[in-house]
Amino acid sequence: MLQSFKHLFTCNLVLSRSFSGYVSRMRYLMRLKEDDEAYREALKSGKVLLYHKLSPLLRKTSSGVYKLASLKTSDLEQILEKVGKDKHFVNESFLLGCTDKGEPQFSLEVGDLDRSALEKECRGMFVDLRKAFFMIPGPESPLAAKGQALLRWHQTNCFCSATGQPTVRNQSGSFRVCHSSGITYYPKMAPVVIVLVSDGSRCLLARQAMFPAGMYSALSGFCDMGESVEEALHREVAEEVGLEVENLQYSGSQHWPFPQSSFMLACHATVNPDKTQVNIDKAELEDARWFTYEEITEALQNPPRDPRREPPVFWVPPSYAIANQLIQEWANQQQLSRKLHRLK
Ligand SMILES: NC(=O)C1=CN([C@@H]2O[C@H](COP(=O)(O)OP(=O)(O)OC[C@H]3O[C@@H](n4cnc5c(N)ncnc54)[C@H](O)[C@@H]3O)[C@@H](O)[C@H]2O)C=CC1
Ligand SMILES: [Mg+2]
């Protein structure tokens, strides 16, 4: 039996060489999730992202730009020994993905170790993820988010909700199992709808009291059990600002690591321009306002560098957030319709 499985894997490997780079990488990751031996081999030659109490390690490059620090496993083993930890702790890492070149990537939580000693040895610093989104290059943000989300999910799913017994991770971290109940737990995301409402010439943005000063975003809300995306969107807008939306248009989706991993489903919608009076649910929102095209373009063109230090009067979420994508799309659409209007 074992022989035939091995044969199958070999066939898969040979086959994968004829696939495109993307398919080969996905098949490789699939194998690492299931095959502990292959996982251990990959870990030896891969790179690990470190998190200290869920804050990722960043490094400043010679050009002054901050990037996610990914450490070679062999270097990390040495660093661990220098800060008084067994090098085999590296085996606690979780599989994140692989680079375009097929180099496997992992994440490891080192929150029990001395933060400043680690920062010194790694020549980097641990930065709160929300702040890191303003510092690292955009393409690195999804990886930083996934690394944190996976670590948090494992930290908060150590026990079976049916038996109260400990759950045990598989080697790659793609699931946890309770051997007492037999239940397998997979990492979860909560579906959230996010919608940019327009009245044709203005768009509606809102802020919660907990947002950083001056930041306004698109309306959002968790889907209720049994709801469709459309139902959740209609309900959330009605609940939060007392408006009825129409013409829903899907824009895109995004994994968002907060508060406990959300799956953002983003749409545009319109309201009747004669019915734009907002009636804010003050329990949910501190404010909701209609913004003009000029206000929006100003906010998009001048994003704050460090909004926690010098918050502008009005600003929108950073470019990595899907709210920013919605706002950008709306501004592009407005620009186009203004051009067409002038041509008429
Ligand atoms: N990536 C992006 O561009 C954006 C992401 N978001 C994310 O969407 C999330 C949801 O948006 P909100 O307007 O705050 O949602 P919301 O309008 O549904 O209000 C949040 C409240 O819903 C309740 N709730 C229901 N189901 C919940 C669940 N599964 N997890 C946590 N709370 C739940 C809680 O009482 C919570 O206080 C935010 O936490 C934020 O992380 C929000 C805006 C932009
Ligand atoms: Mg909301």
TrEMBL record:
It catalyses: NADH + H2O = reduced beta-nicotinamide D-ribonucleotide + AMP + 2 H(+); NADPH + H2O = reduced beta-nicotinamide D-ribonucleotide + adenosine 2',5'-bisphosphate + 2 H(+); NAD(+) + H2O = beta-nicotinamide D-ribonucleotide + AMP + 2 H(+). GO terms for molecular function: hydrolase activity; metal ion binding. CDD domains: NUDIX_NADH_pyrophosphatase_Nudt13. It holds the Pfam family NUDIX-like. This is NAD(+) diphosphatase. The keyword NAD applies. Its EC number is 3.6.1.22. Keywords: Hydrolase, Magnesium, Metal-binding, NAD. It comes from the Eukaryota. The keyword rRNA-binding does not apply. The lineage of its organism: Eukaryota, Metazoa, Chordata, Craniata, Vertebrata. PROSITE patterns: NUDIX, NUDIX_BOX. Its cofactor is Mg(2+). It comes from Onychostoma macrolepis. Residues 187-313 form the Nudix hydrolase domain.
